[in-house]
Amino acid sequence: MAILVTGGAGFIGCNFVIDWLECIGEPVINLDKLTYAGNLQSLSALNSDNRHLFVNGDIGDSALLKLLLSKYSPRAVINFAAESHVDRSIHAPSEFIQTNVLGTFTLLEAIRGYWSELPEDERRLFRFLHVSTDEVYGSLLPGDPPFTETNAYEPNSPYSASKAASDHLVRAWHHTYGLPVLTTNCSNNYGPYHFPEKLIPLVILNALAGKPLPIYGDGQQVRDWLYVKDHCSAIRRVLEAGALGETYNVGGWNEKTNLEVVHTICAILDELQPRTDGESYAGQITFVQDRPGHDRRYAIDARKLERELGWKPAETFETGIRKTVQWYLDNQGWVHNVSSGNYREWVNQQYGI
Ligand code: NAD
Ligand code: DAU
Question: Is the CB of 298 under 6 A from ligand 2?
């Protein structure tokens, strides 16, 4: 028995693989293209763990997918692989269409071919879980109720449009071909191994480096933060017990404005690693030009997942953000390599890729 994980060298994927091996122990085939966001150093704790097999490759490579599926016969595939950064999608949308739309299509077709040839009992138990985002639902006004699974899709950025397209493909492959799919739509994650292009790790690292903490626009945009390990436990639960063809929203019930998030990080750093001049890190906050088309508010109603599958997040924002800041302080080697691009050289040296 094994599972195939795609994008398992990225932020959420690597946390998922590490937690999976710890909690479930079933072998993982980890297929990742190692884009700028993929980092094998995040998986270095598994270097001598023969339950983890890393494969450098693209979800858009149909021949490779067929080979992996027939060679390892996974009982499930979990698709994390994507281009994930909204700002990058605004500057260069092409890769987002390539991986998030065409890549998902190619993956679905390879899985359909594999699944349809499985013996009846294995075909019945097989699952494809697609990891998606709350951004597909668009933007909320201040008094609107949080997104439920029945909200209409109203994506506003090239990133969210590409994820919405992939969700529609997954849905269609279930309804048309009967593929046993599950989709999760999650809110903003944070925690260990988060690439420092995203708000929380960027602010922690810039603060420590004495750099400005850039706040887009007025900083009053709201995100609903979920500690990454809670996301991983939700995915495990949906994989285990989710109803076929269903979608499940995953969120942390932690709506915060960006400014609140940044002030909280500054206060924790003031306590754990005070500036040498005795001033608060909050003094580094700098308002910069807003993101084009910036969604004002996301919030997730995660009650379906709680009601039907009994999942609830374990962390509050206060506990999760403290753990996260501490992790970055304790893992300066990882931080240094990611920030300097050294991890690319390391991957080359270590793996010849
Ligand atoms: P990430 O950018 O940190 O990692 C993405 C990983 O996918 C990287 O390791 C990258 O090398 C790999 N990848 C990219 N293109 C690939 C391809 N064509 N073939 C194989 N591998 C490829 O992203 P993340 O934050 O870990 O997000 C993982 C998934 O979760 C994405 O699908 C994202 O849309 C979704 N999601 C993320 C968040 C969040 O807050 N980070 C929230 C909700 C949903
Ligand atoms: O909602 C889920 C989504 O969360 C995921 O689908 C995406 O993959 C993930 O990247 C994340 O998207 P966001 O755009 O919400 O995350 P980001 O960390 O880029 O930005 C969070 C908020 O902070 C957002 O309102 C923009 C703002 N921001 C971001 C950066 C990088 C700033 O104010 N300054 C910054 O420098």
Answer: yes
